[in-house]
User: Which sequence fits this backbone?
């Protein structure tokens, strides 16, 4: 009886996951190869896709750098010191998780757009210096939106690890006269490297795939479009060939998503192993 | 006593880097999150209460809120049921392919929403595999609320599983054994012994999946069809539409209501978690 219910539940789980998650993945790959392998590579080599690829990678690299610096600083602050307002601070860090990405886009429009207070400031700066700095509807806006939506990823991964190892080792090192950088490099970093790696990977995945926030801030195909926006444009142009192209570009992002899942699995495994060794 | 407390207070600052990490954190948080969001608030407060009410009570806006809330609620409910089963299977059973199953759960986090959106839309359209299958039963998924809900189920499943899993891992199977020895049936054991323990975690997962669903954009806009008459427009779509028509007052008014809703959900989730932490620390 017990054995039977076990396999029924595993069966339900398997069927649910297959239809909800695996089938859509397979469908992307099949649809992308509909017009043959030649067309597949032809779609990937189009100038708008290449430009979108460049913008996407740029935004992702900046997002990873910014969020790694922030993530380490914030995790250090939250787990190593006690101060007033800590609860509020950690709640504020998680805001990007809980609000619609479209609102993130709106927020930057309201700040740097024509209606925003910083918009006028930048216009005057441009006039004074003779420069032509554009934030919204330009690459900097895309980068800002990407940083916004990926903001908590690194800190979220590091904080639980730092909490679980406690701060005794670092305190001992500090009392023995080690400076902050040495403490971080020799004691903290070895503990958090897998969590950091996983945070960076999640951040990259989200940055490469962000759609809603960037959609509000990017309007020029071939210049400020990212890969998801290019997919959107191809899919909505509604000829059967361009839909196949949309799936071809999507297949790249699917491969990336699968790679993320595999690396996560390995990173988690390694973290568990490390824990057992200690 | 006070002296001891004093020393304890100081020892928390033995580790260097307080000023530096506080500086970096506050500066970046303000520049990237707080100031832009404050701009939305400041702008929306410039609207008079009457204008604000008029903007958010337009028929298509109210319908969009109804659609988003209803579909997210159903999706979060479906996810709670399957999420519970998935978490149970992953924690309690050993079987081949378990590690793969555990990894796949997180796919919706890793897959770009636009990609999920177009592939689900294609799959459930009249020519797609799932669309044809459901069509045999007279169910039309693409461009209806059914399709919209399916997309939200896709997006929400990891939230429920990942909320329940850690709690289930710490739950001692001996209670269930005791219940079984005392003659409780399987269903009875589940309802009286397991469910109360998992309740807060389940509610957290439900809340997170629901909040994500209400704000979702990329994965739903292709399958929903965004038809005002069929009421398949979601709130995020209406905001984006208003932004495209440079109707900033309309967009910010809706965004404000949405921000309020998501903070409400988060607050509730937070309260549940605090309550849970208190309960477990008493035990």
Assistant:
């Amino acid at each position: 009886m017990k054995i039977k219910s076990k396999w029924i539940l595993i069966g339900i789980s398997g069927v649910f996951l297959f239809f909800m998650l695996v089938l859509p993945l397979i469908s992307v790959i099949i649809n992308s190869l509909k017009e043959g392998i030649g067309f597949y590579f032809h779609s990937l080599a189009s100038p708008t896709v290449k430009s979108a690829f460049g913008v996407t990678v740029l935004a992702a690299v900046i997002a990873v750098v910014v969020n790694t610096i922030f993530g380490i600083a914030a995790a250090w602050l939250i787990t190593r010191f006690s101060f007033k307002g800590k609860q509020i601070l950690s709640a504020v860090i998680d805001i990007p998780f809980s609000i619609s990405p479209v609102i993130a886009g709106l927020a930057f429009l309201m700040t740097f757009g024509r209606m925003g207070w910083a918009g006028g400031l930048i216009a005057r700066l441009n006039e004074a210096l003779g420069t032509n700095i554009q934030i919204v509807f330009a690459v900097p806006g895309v980068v800002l939106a990407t940083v916004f939506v990926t903001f908590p990823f690194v800190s979220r991964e590091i904080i639980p690890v730092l909490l679980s190892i406690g701060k005794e080792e670092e305190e001992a090192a500090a009392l023995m006269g080690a400076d902050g950088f040495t403490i971080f490099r020799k004691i903290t970093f070895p503990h958090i490297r897998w969590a950091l790696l996983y945070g960076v990977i999640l951040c990259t995945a989200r940055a490469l795939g962000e759609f809603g926030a960037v959609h509000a801030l990017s309007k020029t195909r071939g210049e400020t479009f990212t890969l998801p926006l290019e997919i959107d444009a191809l899919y909505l142009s509604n000829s059967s060939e361009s839909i196949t192209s949309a799936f071809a570009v999507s297949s790249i992002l699917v491969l990336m998503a699968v790679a993320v899942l595999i690396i996560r699995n390995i990173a988690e495994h390694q973290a568990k192993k490390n824990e057992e060794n200690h | 006593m006070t002296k001891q407390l004093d020393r304890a207070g100081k020892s928390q600052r033995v580790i260097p880097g307080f000023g530096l990490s506080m500086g970096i954190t506050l500066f970046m948080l303000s520049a990237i999150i707080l100031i832009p969001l404050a701009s939305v608030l400041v702008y929306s407060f410039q609207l008079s209460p009457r204008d604000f009410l008029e903007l958010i009570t337009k028929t298509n806006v109210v319908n969009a809120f109804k659609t988003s809330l209803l579909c997210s609620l159903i999706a979060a409910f479906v996810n709670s049921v399957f999420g519970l089963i998935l978490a149970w299977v992953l924690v309690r059973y050993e079987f081949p392919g378990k590690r793969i199953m555990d990894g796949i759960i997180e796919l919706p986090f890793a897959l770009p929403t636009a990609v999920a959106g177009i592939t689900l839309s294609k799959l459930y359209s009249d020519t797609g595999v799932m669309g044809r299958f459901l069509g045999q039963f007279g169910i039309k998924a693409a461009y209806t609320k059914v399709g919209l809900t399916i997309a939200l189920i896709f997006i929400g499943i990891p939230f429920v599983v990942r909320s329940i899993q850690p709690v289930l891992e710490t739950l001692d199977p001996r209670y269930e054994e005791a219940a079984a020895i005392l003659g409780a049936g399987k269903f009875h054991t589940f309802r009286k012994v397991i469910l109360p323990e998992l309740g807060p975690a389940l509610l957290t997962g439900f809340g997170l999946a629901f909040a994500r669903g209400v704000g979702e954009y990329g994965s739903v806009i292709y399958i929903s069809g965004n038809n005002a008459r069929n009421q398949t427009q979601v709130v995020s779509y209406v905001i984006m539409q208003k932004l495209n028509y440079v109707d900033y007052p309309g967009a910010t008014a809706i965004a404000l209501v949405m921000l309020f809703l998501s903070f409400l959900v988060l607050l509730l989730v937070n309260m549940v978690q605090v309550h849970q932490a208190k309960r477990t620390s008493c035990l």
Remarks:
- Chain B touches chain A through 85 residues (CB under 8 Å).
- Confidence is low (pLDDT under 50) at residues 1-11 of chain B.
- The radius of gyration of chain B is 23 Å.
